[in-house]
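tool=predict chain=A
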Amino acid sequence: RAPGPGPRRVRPPGPGRLLPLEELEALRDDPLDGLIKIAARYGDLFTYPIALQTIYVLNHPDYIAHVLVTNQRNYSKDTFQFNLLKTVAGNGLLSSDGEVWRKQRRLIQPGFHHSRLVRLGPIAEAASQRMMGRWAPHLDRGEPLDVEQEMLRLALEILGEALFSNDMGGQAEVITGAVVEALDHIVFRARHPLTPPAWVPTRRNRRFQHALLTLDAAVARLLAQRRRAANPPDDLLTMMLGARDAETGEPMSDTQLRDEIDTLLIAGHETVASALTWTWHLLATHPAAWHELQDELATVLGGRPPTLDDLERLPYTRAVFDEAMRLYPPNWIITRRAEEPDEIGGYRVDAGGLVLVSPYLIQRHPEFWARPNTFDPTRFLPGATRPGKHTYVHFGAGPRLCIGRHFSLIEGPLVIAAVAQQVRFTALQPQVAVEALVTLRPRDGLWMRASRR
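tool=predict ok
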């Protein structure tokens, strides 16, 4: 529905304070499906009371643009989502706000310039080949692999080498395990606000603290190695260590460095791993798309490894990755806090209200996407007719657009091209339960049978 004029300065529709039991059960049993059903009932802007907080759910591109672009200064990251993330990543780029965020963004942005991402091509290819080398026993015997864990390790290796010139392969299992443990913990706390505070030594809290110590130790080793280097490489880490504030001339503090590196480690590998995991599931369960991908790879690459220069000639490969992120956006929920009263679509938004935008919702909106629940990469091919702006927002929008967007859009298709030429995955189950955690993850991993092509 296009946003109509609506009644002015009135409360948006919603269930009121008495929540229907069937809606509560739907949100409890399947948050994603429940959210879609509730949005279908109340429309593209509605309020929903959760944990004594009024939440405004926006599911129209004009409303999303208002919050994330047009009037974005009125909407801060002082929300439960980002405040919980701060317990893991501190005041890094993902969770910081205001002038702190603007200063850090200016310092870090050059590290993601296209000229610096050129080295990502050979790094992604080499890491993919090492991964498939590790798979050799499974491939020979047709044994199942947990594709989610493999993608987590691969994404961490690529990020570590591309941004920090560091071989994290030997630490991958420990670091990815710590990241998953920490992120799962904050989701648990968000869903169970009455759980004991972090200082109470419960078993869950002890695991969380151990995960934080593991991440801190990895960052400390990274910084210590770089500071000892006689000829440090020209990468993002060196750039961050040499960065100086334009006004004070001061370098980043060790605390801020730790927060930014933790943020990059977490956001830079867990999200891409999620997108790649769902890509393999979708390809394995859609044979026509798999064959179309194979035809393109055979025509363009002819069996040789992909390079950065090949990406423009691999539109279907890129479209597969884009469509996987439409259906399973790693960043499935975006929250903001209204600092001042506002009006959206003719409805009142109170100061302090929590505004929720779900890429999962808008990217499956039936009024903007034909066959919204169908995997169809052709909708992202050059020349295809697509919905307008802000109907595809898993990287965010406006000034807070994800700093790693281009990194992901290079890494994902390169990995797909490298792996799909040599390996075929067979789904062990056509339907996979989705857990809506910090990212969207398959419940109990994604076990698939891998075989050589």
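Residues 135 and 421 are 15 Å apart (CA to CA). The longest helix spans residues 254-284.
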